[in-house]
Amino acid sequence: MDHVEKVTGKGFLFVPDSSIEAYANATVRAAGRARPFHMLRYVPSLGEHLPYFIAHESGHLLRLYSAPEDNRKMPYIFEEHRRTAGYEVKDHLLKLARLGLPEDVIGVMLRLWHEGLVGQLYNIPADMRIETWIKGNYPSLRPAQRKALKMTLEDNYQSLHPRVAAATPKKMYHASNAINAAFAIYLGWLLGDRKLAQPYRQTPYFKVGSELARSVWNGKDGGHEGDIETSQEWAERFGVQDWFEWVLPDEDQMEVGH
After folding, report:
1. Exposed/middle/buried for 18, CB within 10 Å: 0-12, 13-18, 19+?
2. Which pLDDT value is given to residue 234?
3. What pLDDT, on a 0 to 100 scale, did the predictor assign at position 159?
4. How many whole angstroms separate alpha carbon 222 and alpha carbon 200?
5. What is the Cα–Cα distance from 71 to 162, expressed in whole angstroms?
6. What is the pLDDT of residue 1?
7. Radius of gyration of the chain (CA)
């Protein structure tokens, strides 16, 4: 945390918040004009593992603020991107409509799928670097790191269930699981536990995931700008580069971590 305060010039406010448990254990919003501190929200039940999650969210802040100010871009989804994504998965949306799902429900599902995939594209390359940084610099956090990451992967494995495959547009489903596979493979190398990627080995996602993971594993850490480059390369590989754009966010709305 001291390193974050030195780099960013801002301190932290820690807020226990059980409402974020549905999508994250901890998340951080960067300081802005109306907020002179970084707000880190966390699930109260984290207990002794909280320092690991603080370190992870701090990693996101350090990567962002270490980049030149005009390069601190983040992915944003505007209405034209939503239309593009919807058009490209329209066959699946029409199938849902034929099954009787209301239009507003389909719209919510499209938004969740779309934002979820863009979130993966943005976060996972950075997460790979951050976990490497934590393991290399904070030995005392390694037990909590290993436990937390195994829990994350267990959640990711659930996406391989046939019910999820049937309910999700193929383009989104393939990209999401390939990225999850990449993360599992990378963590298997990092933690010395190849079993972490076992659920993906007999799937179509293992080969692609291996290639994505290796591109980061063998590549030089380029900080936030390097994360953007990797995210863009992955987006182009999955044909979703037109589903978002990189913009400089308003500094009062910078939800950096997850």
Report:
1. exposed
2. 98
3. 97
4. 28
5. 40
6. 59
7. 18
Exposed, middle or buried, 170 (CB in 10 Å: 0-12/13-18/19+)? exposed
CA dihedral 210, 212, 215, 217 (to 10 degrees): -60
Distance CA 63, CA 50 (A): 20
Q: Which residues contact 183 (CB under 8 A, 6 or more apart)?
A: 124, 127, 128, 153, 156, 209, 213
The rounded distance, in Å, linking the Cα atoms of 142 and 145 is 5
User: What is the rounded distance in angstroms from the CA atom of residue 26 to the CA atom of residue 56?
Assistant: 9
Q: Using the structure block, give the residue that is written with the tokens 């943005």.
A: 122
Please report the pLDDT score of residue 24 as a whole number: 87
CA 53 to CA 162: how far, in whole Å?
A: 31
Euclidean distance between the first and final Cα of the chain, in Å? Answer: 17
Q: Which residues of the chain have pLDDT under 70?
A: 1, 251-258
Dist CA 116 CA 22 (whole Å): 13
Q: What is the DSSP string of 62-96?
A: HHHHTS-GGG--EEE--HHHHHHHHHHTHHHHHHH
CA distances in angstroms from 17 to 13, 32, 41, 46, listed in the order given: 12, 20, 6, 11
Amino acid 251: pLDDT: 62
